Amino acid sequence: MNFYHVKRHRVNSLDYAQPIPAIIDSLDENIIYRDDIYDREPLGNEWGKGYTTLIGDASHPVQPNLGQGGCMAIEDAFELVKYLVIGQAKGEEIPTSLRQFEQSRSSRVAKVFTVSRQVGQLAQTDSAFGCWLRDSIYRLTPTWLGDLQFKWLFDYQPKLPDSDLMSPSK
C-alpha cells in the first residue's frame, strides 16, 4: 500500500488561508491511499499497423496537468474521421489513411506531452524553496500572460480538408 504523506503538506500549507490548514490537520494519513500517475513517451509518427490505429490515451497518455486528455481524444476522433473520409474520396486504402492521421497528430501530441510534463514538474515540486518559487510565479503572473502562454493549446482549430482533397484520384 502506498499511503499519502500528510506531514509534508502540513508544513507546506502553513501560510494558506483557513480552512485549508485545518482540513489538512484533520487528515489521518493511515487511511489516505495515494497512487502515482504515469505517462509514456509519445509513440512517434506511427500508432498502429495495417487496419488498426490507436487514439486518445491508448496512443498518447499524458499526465492531467493541462486537463487535455479528453480533449485530445475528441481531436483524435475528428481527425481520424476526416482522414478516413478524404482517403475514401481519393480511393486510398484504409491503412494509408490511418498512417496519414497518425502523422498529422504526432507533433501536437508531442507538444502537449512535453508541456504537460513541464507543468507537472513545476506544480508537483516537493522542496520548500520550490513550492515558494512556484507559488510566487503563479501569484505574480498576470492572467493574460498565463492565457497567452497556452493560446496554442486552447485555440486549436482542426483543419478542414481542402475541396481538391475530397476529389477522387484519377
What is the secondary structure topology, with strand pairs?
Layout: H1 6-12, H2 20-25, H3 69-89, H4 94-123, H5 128-140, H6 143-149, H7 151-154
Helix pairs in contact: 3-4
- The total count of strands amounts to 0
Q: pLDDT under 50 segments (min length 5)?
A: none
- Portion of residues in beta strands equals under 5%
Question: What is the CA-CA span between the terminal residues?
Answer: 63 Å
Structural class: mainly alpha
Largest sheet, in brief, is: none
Shape: elongated
What name does CATH use for the topology of the largest domain? FAD/NAD(P)-binding domain
User: What is the CA-based Rg, rounded?
Assistant: 22 Å
The mean pLDDT is 86
What is the fourth-level CATH superfamily of the largest domain?
FAD/NAD(P)-binding domain
The CATH architecture category of the largest domain equals 3-Layer(bba) Sandwich
Helix content: 40-55%
H/E series: HHHHHHH
CATH class of the largest domain: Alpha Beta
Essential attributes:
170 residues; single chain; 52% helix; 2 domains; elongated
Give a quick precis of the structure.
The protein has 7 helices and no strands. The chain is an all-alpha fold and 170 residues long.
Report on the structure:
By secondary structure, this protein is an all-alpha fold. Helix content is 52%, strand content 0%. It has 2 domains: 1-36, no CATH class; 39-166, 3-Layer(bba) Sandwich (FAD/NAD(P)-binding domain). The protein has 7 helices and no strands. The longest helix has 30 residues, at 94-123. The mean pLDDT is 86.
